[in-house]
Structure formats: C-alpha cells, structure tokens
Design the sequence.
C-alpha cells in the first residue's frame, strides 16, 4: 500500500499516471503520486484524478493514519475510482506554485532570523513562522533582507544525508515542533546556496528569484518568548 512520492525529487512535476490501491479515511490511496500531503507546516496539494471522461476533485492530500508511508487523496463526492483502476493524477498548479514560493521564502526568513522555530504554516495565501525568542523584530529590516535574498537569485536544491550525518550536525534542525522523519536511513535536506541548509521534505522553487515580490504583512508578539512573522505576496 506504500505510495511512491514523486514530489520529493521533482516539485515541478504536475501530473503522473497511477493505480488505485485502496479506499479509506475519506479518500483514495494510489501506488504513486505527485500530490504533497499535509506535513511539516505545509498544506496538502489539491487537484484531480482523471480516468478518460471521469474526473474526481482532490480537495486535500494527507498522510494515512492507518497505513505507514501511504498517502490519502481526499475526494469531493461519494463515488470513488475503482480499486485497481488506472488514473492520471493532476496537481492544482496555482496552489502548488504558491506553496513552493512561500515555503522557500520561510527558509530565507530562517536565515535572516537565527532563532529556533516553534510554529509554521504554509498555505497558498500566506506563510508564517513563529520564532522562539524575546528579541524585538524590525519589520523594515526583515523586508529589506527578503528583497535582497530574492533578488540575488540563489540556487535552491535538495539532497539526502544519512541519519548519522544529521546526528553529527544537530544544529541543522531549526524546528522545535517538527522533527525530520526517521527510520528510512536517510534525511532530505533543503539548501539555499550560501543562505540556508536544514532538513525539509516540502516543495520548493529552484532559485530564490522565482519566489517573486514578498511582503512582510505582520509581526506579532504571540507570547513572552514567541515572535510571529507573516508573509504575503505583493499584489
């Protein structure tokens, strides 16, 4: 029942052929998919399953609670494609593009603000990071830093390291609430060349210039030890 996760290696891949392996948890399981499931603070992908003239709307994508390493595609409606049938999986391209741009932008924030992260949310309309610190943030300085890093067009790439390499470099993990998944023998890390390196399984752009114009929409003091930064796209 395991789902091959094509999005881990190519975030630009927007469709693939797949076979239905099961029903449950409100949706459909497939043997492979391009749809990213909710996790690591990033919202799940939406899209469609297509079989000839039939189309099923995928409203969200989640990790199965019952089947390890299996992804559930939540379907709008009660009728589901038959188990064993072949379908084409299509990602909502606009939603994926926003997730990729915002997620990479949060890595730029981590580079600008060297504090542990204790909360994260990446959607198609905004991104936010909560930093564990009591230091005040300068909104204008953060905006200028983001503008600079986007304009500098840093290459963005992922690679895999062993769990032993991560153990030898615990400082790579910036998040206090989400730890890299273990048990597979390797950890996926995201590198913004010359800017940031940390474990991350999300979808990203291939160059910071692709992020486009960002706006720091809000900075909040959420608690004595938490400062929140919210990002949007410039209109």
Sequence:
């Amino acid at each position: 029942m395991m789902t091959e996760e094509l999005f881990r290696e190519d975030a630009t891949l927007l469709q693939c052929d797949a076979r239905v392996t099961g029903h449950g948890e409100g949706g459909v399981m497939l043997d492979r998919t391009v749809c990213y499931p909710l996790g690591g603070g990033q919202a799940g992908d939406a899209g469609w399953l297509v079989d000839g003239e039939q189309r099923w709307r995928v409203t969200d994508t989640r990790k199965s609670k019952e089947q390890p390493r299996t992804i559930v595609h939540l379907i709008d409606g009660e009728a589901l494609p038959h188990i064993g049938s072949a379908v084409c999986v299509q990602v909502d391209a606009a939603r994926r593009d926003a997730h990729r741009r915002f997620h990479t932008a949060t890595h730029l924030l981590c580079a600008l603000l060297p504090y542990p992260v204790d909360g994260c949310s990446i959607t198609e309309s905004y991104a936010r990071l909560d930093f564990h610190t009591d230091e005040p943030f300068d909104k204008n300085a953060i905006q200028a830093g983001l503008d600079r890093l986007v304009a500098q067009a840093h290459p963005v790439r992922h690679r895999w390291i062993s769990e032993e390499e991560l153990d030898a470099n615990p400082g790579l993990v910036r998040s206090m609430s989400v730890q890299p998944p273990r048990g597979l023998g390797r950890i996926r890390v995201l590198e913004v060349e010359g800017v940031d390196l940390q474990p991350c399984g999300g979808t990203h752009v291939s160059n910071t210039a692709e992020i486009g114009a960002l706006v720091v929409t809000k900075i909040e003091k959420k608690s004595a030890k938490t400062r929140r930064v919210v990002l949007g796209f410039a209109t």
The mean pLDDT is 94.
